Amino acid sequence: MEEEFHELTDRVRAELRSPQDLVAYERLLGLARKNTPAGREELARMLVAVERPLWAREIAAFILGCAGDKRAFETLVLLLNYREPVRCATAAHALGRLGDPRTARAAAALATNPLRTAYALHPVRLLAELRAPQSVPALIATLERLLTPHNPYWRVALACVEGLGALGDRRAVPSLTAAVGHPRLAAAAAASLARLGVHEEVQADAGPQVQADAGPQVGADAGPQAKEAAPDATGEGRGDGGRGQGQERGEGPGGGSGSDSGSASGSGVSGRR
Questions:
Q1: Which residues does residue 269 pair with via DSSP β-bridges, in sequence order?
Q2: What is the mean pLDDT of residues 138-160?
Q3: Which site among 28, 114, 115, 231 is 20 to 30 Å from 152 CA-CA?
Q4: Are the beta carbons of 97 and 1 closer than 8 angstroms?
């Protein structure tokens, strides 16, 4: 926790705007250092206090979450689904140490919500870390939804591929085999399949699909008409290269269409910001 906490506090310090902010910030650090029951009670009150700045609630929730205090759950899940990836990463770290059985259900609901795909990267990674019963079905569902040409959220799909390989569940084989046919996912999908012991199956079954997606190959034996009709081999690479950057900025299609009011049903997850 030490390294992540220092990264959090260094980032928050840059957000402070007044002497009052600095006093409140130093107070939070003091409570973290003491790590007493009374200090945790005060931190828990900060989570529900009116007009507390987001950075103060983020620090309080992180401290409580890493200490296994389940009162941090709601705030951490809100931050896991936040529009700023750095806050999502901090929340995911704390949720991974919280030990609350609701966490996997909440992460699965966020990962599989098509309206929140722009913010699904850290919920997906958290599911792989938790290794919960919800992890594999949620990652498979999310990956299959993203296996479309020129999908701007290929980084989320890549996280699903890597997570499924780490989880080692053979239910993922059909989805991973399909992912081999997508250039940005092919190497990771093949590696994940190899971890599942199906490397030779991929060579035999997925190879033709990869070639089909890449277009006809024009070699020395192809006739003049075949060479003239062959598509530009770089077309696939240009198709989504620019649009994929939306995920890093936390934007949905069209510059952030993911609604901040989305919710995770059945998990107590609120989309409030």
A1: 264
A2: 96
A3: 231
A4: yes
Q: How many residues does the chain have?
A: 273
Spatial CB neighbours of 3, under 8 Å, sequence gap ≥ 6: none
Spatial separation of the C-alpha atoms in residues 116 and 109, rounded to whole Å: 10
Mean of the pLDDT values across residues 97-101? 95
Q: Cα 40 from chain centroid?
A: 29
Confidence (pLDDT) at 1: 62
CA distances from 191 to 59, 60, 160, 164, 238 (A): 37, 39, 13, 11, 25
pTM of the model: 0.72
Cβ within 8 Å of residue 46, ≥6 positions away: 28, 52, 56, 57, 60
Dist CA 72 CA 208 (whole Å): 49
Give how far Cα 27 sits from Cα of 57, 82, 155, 159, 162, Å: 13, 25, 38, 37, 40
On whether the CB atoms of residues 213 and 182 are closer than 8 A, the answer is: yes
3-state secondary structure 157-209: HHHHHHHHHHHCCHHHHHHHHHHCCCCCCHHHHHHHHHHCCCHHHHHHHHHHH
Cα 193 from Cα 26, distance rounded (Å): 49
Q: Which alpha helices (H) appear in 49-101, and where do they start and end?
A: 54-66, 73-80, 85-98
- Identify any residues that bridge with 264 across adjacent strands, giving them in sequence order: 269
Please give the backbone phi and psi of residue 75, each rounded to the nearest 5 degrees, phi first. Answer: -65, -40
d(CA 253, CA 104): 26
